[in-house]
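Same chain as my last thread, 201 residues:
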Amino acid sequence: MSYINILTGRYPMSAPDVLAENPDKIFPDVFELPDNYAVVQETFPEAYSRHTHIAVELAPKLEDGVYSQVWSVVPIQAEIAEERLACFKSIYLKDIARIRWEKEVGGLPLPNGMVIKTDRESQAQLSSAYTSLKGGLIPDTMWKGANGWVLVTLEDIEPLAQAVAQFVRACFMAEKQHQDAIDTLTLADAINYNVNLGWPV
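reply #2:
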C-alpha cells in the first residue's frame, strides 16, 4: 500500500516513510495514518506490449475524496528500443545459421525412399564421384548412402548430385532471405519473427 503526503505532495510513500516524517508523533500499535496523509488506491495501466512500451506512473488523482494511481503508457526510449532490437537480431542471426547447418548436413530424403547423406564429407565424396563418372575415369562406383550400399553409374548419380546441390543451395538461400528480413526488422516485428519458416524439407 502506498500513501501521499497531502500537504507536500510527496509520493509514493510507505508506512516507514510516514513514520520517518513524524518522529515526534506517538503511533498506536496498529498503524494509523495521520490527518495530512492519504491512501492511494492501486490501479493498473491499460494493456501494452512490454517490448515496445513502458508504463510510467504519474501523480495520483483526487476524485470524490479518494486518491488513485494514474498511469501513462509511453514508447520505450529510442536507445533502449535499439538495444532490444539489436539483441533480437543477434539471437535470430545465430538461430538461422544453426538451422541452416542442421538442415544442410541432416540428409536429403528422396521420393523413392532413399536418403542421401549431406554432411560436408558426403557432399565432397558425391561431387568427386560425379566428376570421375562424368569424366569417364570409371564406369560405375559403389555408393554408401544412409540406407546402405548401392552400385551407381553416371546416369544414377547425376540426379543425386543435382538434388544435393540444389538442396544445399536452397539451404543457403533460405538463410540469406532470413538474414535480409532480419536486417530490416522493427522492434514490433522482431517480437513475433519466426526463424523456422521457409526452409527446404
